[in-house]
Amino acid sequence: MDILHISRPLPIAGLEDIPAPSTDADAPRTLLIRCPVANATPLVQAEAIAVEASVAEVWLKDERGRMGLGSFKALGAAYVIARDAQDAKAAGTTYVTASAGNHGLSVAAGAAAFGARAVIYIANTVPDAFAERLAEQGAEVRREGATYEDSMAAAEKAAADQGWELLSDGSWPGYTDRPFHVMEGYLALMAEVIEEMPAPPSHIFLQAGVGGLAGACAALARQHWGDAPRIVVVEPEAAPALHGSIVAGCPVESSGPESAMGRLDCKMPSLIALKGLAADADAFALISEAEAEAGAGLAMVAGMGSTPSGAAGISALIALDDAQRDALGLDARATVLCILSEGPEG
Questions:
Q1: Residue 243, SS3?
Q2: Is the pLDDT of residue 345 over 80?
Q3: The overall pTM is greater than 0.85
């Protein structure tokens, strides 16, 4: 595993007009409290993982049952569509996006709940099981290209050609309002963690695709816990979107082979997330496919079955060598927080 340490805040060129992540957790929670399936998800102490990682405690925020959709993503796009519904702008609208699975589920569920339509573009590499789940939520599923970026380009073109509402969890110049509020929706899970943890964690491991989850959670963690927690962002070696941009000092598109961490296999970061994490994260880790499988396997053995994407934070924690642990100040007294971001496939 490769890990890059930074001195916060790290200046990143080209983000002057990009907003930082929201820290207004009350906004999504006020809307979500009206939803009958929007209960808080569990925060679980994982003793077996703590033993394997040689730390005092490991806490897992278990998002596998979130709103019946199996992932934290349920908090994002559905929240944005609910905001539109408050302003009577959702019914009859066609929302279009690209997704590796879970974001699309949130768009589809939100659209179905508020009388809208969802069109989801997915890459040819996305498993059929995810396509079927999207269709079950009422979405029209279209396959386009070999990568997430290809499917995103197709979604953008469809929005422009058809006059549809683009609802992406990534952000770029000229497109920040929707993803800003998608990330704001994710704050609900971190607010639950802050309320439930008996004491602040010493270390937080946050997996990232485009970076929305990591950026939102890191921003709220800093607001409530200050500089004390060491925050580590975890990406696949095959998709170092944030890591590569941090090294370059500006947003860059990464390249690499297809990753088994499908929900994290994104080559371009969300600019909102990049701006936030350059200020809030302490380190950026890249894990191999084998390390990802080891973390998912440990989660399964611990009774917390997930995927290589969902358990990537655990994977990075147990992959640290002695020198990397020392650099992070991670020892037998550490209290670690990870997000189990999705349930097992199938």
A1: helix
A2: no
A3: yes
